[in-house]
């Protein structure tokens, strides 16, 4: 970056030819070669790619755990896996899928796509972004290391006290769980801040609020949910550790604490969490759909309003996870009503997509197939959601395989299907290469069929009285046939994912080269080469329409007048996106990495001693000060 | 795709001040997170209170003097804080330096007083749920004073260094002042909870 | 046997009707949506996509209508579940009160004295008179458990520090299996209980017999078994009323031989299963709190013979 | 082309990577925390064979105990089971929650028969004069080991990481993992007695 031919600060991209701007910007925004360069990079695309890859590795690991469980449950009283290991496995599966796959991968898609879609050069706090990834990586590795050490949490992913409390969960298993939660909270909160500020302040000039792509809206709502919901789980996991480590009495009924307090805190986070995963998927569908039907999305305003309404309502229904704990009837009725009410915004979204399809001409490419699979599956998950929202209905199916089926329909159908579609859709943008249409169809077919064959029978099992989280069942119970069927079907599902990953790896190297806009899409990320250069856009685009890339346009209107010798981007106003300043963006730094290491050191140590918070905070403070201390670079000028 | 220049931004300032600055928004988002955290902790306080037959549980109400003096001190610190912020807005380096030194003291003093607040609770964190939540509330807020104090100290050092005279630094000073105001405002409901609710 | 569809109790029947209704409505909606989806997919094949105000007007009307219908249906389902909740109440008069305490991983069942029988304690098996309202007071000794007999009623959690109440009313005699529904640790899977619904007379006779002390053995093998039981660690954890065995950390065994299953629903009660369980509980139910007590094969036979006679 | 230097660098790094992987695997294997739910009857029997000194204080545990990695003192699971047994077998009737009563205290720093695992096991199994009953016929070897491990952890001056934490119960002393013995231990005026404690 400190090239010998650094040009004078007075030279703006206005005065230069495109090729020259490109040369300067590449040097200014690029990632240094070598190991330390890779560690120090703050390029949102590089970090997001790592994030996505890591999250998918966790998906594979979590999937293998699921297969292990299915193997165990294939026969009654099977002795393949003992109860202790099984409890660890399902806890790992749930925790891993929620905290290490679903939430991070959605955040990762946000940090990849949002800056490109709003037409800026990096996220708002790029170093925080790098920090977030390191924290996530270390937290996830910590959980898996504990599994390898036979010390993985074994109390379920919602870790109800007192089972997870000091008396009934000996050892460090639950502490590891709680601290892993802290890691993922920190990383998710960091992403949320970046996304909110990027969208509020770094949109391309002219991208007023009503021209923001639906996906970006979805990511903003998701980020606000993270900001409001994560403190709850942070409080919960911290107090749990305090109860276990220094003997506080938050969850001890004998000393004024309460076991249900944990459930309130957990689900006040846990329910919005579902929408934190689902809303980005809504955004992905809404942004992909227009491309494959040849017309803009129907009901943009309604969709955005539905997103915001869902975001707000999602905080008012946590109690529907607690319908059988014996709360007052009145309260339960209220939460039935609010849980049912969230079906209305969900309905609006579905109807808008159907209307878009209705008015358009569908082109059956792989992403559209996943969207169709999503609608079919998610509506079903929504229907079972309406069922469990009813208190009396819930008393029969709560904590059974019916609920297992329900939330897999919602999470896999509602979030993973769109995500896979999104990977097919944005893969060319991320790598410059297309994924295979043939393999994609196979992957979709196998995953769709495998999914339904695996999870639909679970509804029936639940109604037949099979509780969840049991490591085995007795032969005289009428569950063995369906369980065997499910276990075999899960292999089809796994095969589908295998095809998908084979396709990803193959296409990474050998896929057909994609141009800047292989799908003929209309959002801004397609206005730049694939994969985008480190600076994203040679010149910041100027937006004049909700669909900035209309096929009839031959030229892209852009803004110019930025410096090329330092990382500079445009800050615009919140509502109208009028340019306000030429803000600098921080350059690469190794300190987020050290700060993440120091933070991890403190968090892991604090599992063993409360003094870790005191002594461990010192290296954290040192790393943070070094991170923020000005280095006298052009980026510090103003 | 070919591009056509329709907008010249070369006349824009190199750094946005106030709500045109990214760090201002970052600070606000951070305050929203912390605010949610405080609100939740207070909600838990009332939840536990509603579960308990008596409140405080097996303890007298906390002694008032340390907490009240601290509250007065914190509220008083808002005045120099706002002054520092406005001086930073005017890029008055000399006054900002003085202000930051004053604000550093204004951060250290409450911490010193805080040491007396914990014994004034007349309960330990592990005695019962009342003790646990009051200690956590107090500890949570202490962390905020402490982090903002460190931030102020680092900024004070920066303002005496060669990096000082820079709109970016003045923006940082303003954001830091904003955050201190938040720390003070967040304390008021916590103060009411810890010291006055048990006396109701 | 253990199914929400096999409704044999008042609550379960109400719930079954509600569930059928909701599932029916939801299936219909789902079919309509999927139909609409496929219609939309095939309708405009080969035609240009429609855009603009004019094309959208009709569609918009349909969307408005659909949203309105959704709202009405959702409101309807809310009301339906509200009324179903009201129907669950069987009146205030309780014929019998039973206190059930969940613990890792079995159920302690204490009958309060009533016109139907005396006060006594048993484990893992609940007998109730048919057509009577039985008030269950649900508590937990350690972690959260959940009491669930799907054929009779919906589930209710058992939470330490709290007491929940559930009313059971079996409409027909029979044996209904229930199982802990809230994850409670290692042996959550093997924490079942049997509910036996009997007519009033049978129930009374059973209750009278349960309240009695254990039978005094006359057979020599059984006597030897009893001696082993008292001499070995068994007596430290289990109670056999009428003997010196007064332990309380394990289930009350006074009438264990008369129960349908042992080890919280794990095995049918036979002499063989009693012997197998006593010999090596940690293989059958890894992690259970019952230790492996070293016994010779002769002692094992004697003890299981004794257990079997405890009817 | 790859030169000899690069080739050897690659070779060395390949070896280093392999060694690191093996080391990691070995480390994981060594640190694994498996829980033993079912002690084999034969192992149980071997565990019985410890040697106690003539005076009934101290001795040597059997080799198998070391081969198992001293499970009753180091495994959190066994310690927590010991804690359950403490209440199930009525230890509290004489020893309270550890502070003693009719029987001696476990947390005052004094051990009548010494703090070794073997002595504690012997005390539980065989009983001691002045009212400590023998639990030989009431507990299995495994259970005696677990209970002894817990009592040893309860009376340790410095808590280990595997020590259990507080109960969901009334608070009567600091939790085991916070070393209640350290708080209550007072060195008496007389130095350590030869038989490791004052006689009763």
Could you explain the architecture of this structure?
The complex is a heterotetramer of chains A (638), B (200), C (311) and D (200). Chain B has 200 residues and is mainly alpha-helical. In chain B, 72% of the residues lie in helices and 4% in strands. Chain B has a domain at 64-199: Cytochrome c oxidase, subunit III, four-helix bundle (Four Helix Bundle (Hemerythrin (Met), subunit A), Up-down Bundle), CATH 1.20.120.80. In chain B, helix 4 (129-159) packs antiparallel against helix 5. The longest helix of chain B is centred in the C-terminal third of the chain and has 31 residues, at 129-159. The radius of gyration of chain B is 21 Å and the shape is elongated. Chain C has 311 residues and is an alpha+beta fold. Chain C has two domains: 1-40 and 57-204, Immunoglobulin-like (Sandwich), CATH 2.60.40; 220-309, Sandwich (Immunoglobulin-like), CATH 2.60.40. Helix content of chain C is 40%, strand content 19%. Chain C has eight helices and twelve strands. Chain C is elongated and about 95 Å long. Chain D folds into two domains: 1-32; 41-184, Cytochrome c-like domain (Cytochrome Bc1 Complex, Chain D, domain 2). Chain D has nine helices and two strands, in the order H-H-E-E-H-H-H-H-H-H-H. Chain D is elongated, with a radius of gyration of 22 Å. The model of chain D is unreliable at 190-200 (pLDDT under 50). The chains are: A mainly alpha (638), B mainly alpha (200), C alpha+beta (311), D mainly alpha (200). Chains in contact: A-B, A-C, A-D, B-D, C-D. Chains A and C meet through helix 4, helix 8, helix 10, helix 11 and helix 12 of A and helix 1 and helix 2 of C. Strand 1 of chain A pairs parallel with strand 1 of chain B, so a sheet runs across the interface.
Keywords summarizing the entry:
heterotetramer; B: 200 residues; mainly alpha; Four Helix Bundle (Hemerythrin (Met), subunit A); 5 helices; D: 200 residues; Cytochrome Bc1 Complex, Chain D, domain 2; 2 domains; two-stranded antiparallel ribbon; 45% helix; disordered C terminus
Q: Most extensive interface: pair and counts?
A: A-C, 81 and 86 residues
CATH topology grouping of the largest domain in chain D:
Cytochrome Bc1 Complex, Chain D, domain 2
Kindly report the oligomeric state of this protein: heterotetramer
Radius of gyration of chain D: 22 Å
CATH class of chain A: Mainly Alpha
Strand residue percentage of chain D: under 5%
Structural class of chain D: mainly alpha
Q: How many beta strands in the DSSP annotation of chain D?
A: 2
Query: What's the alpha carbon Rg of chain A, rounded to whole Å?
Result: 25 Å
Structural domains of chain D: how many:
2
Ranges of chain D where pLDDT stays below 50 over 5 or more residues in a row are 190-200
CATH superfamily of chain A: Cytochrome c oxidase-like, subunit I domain
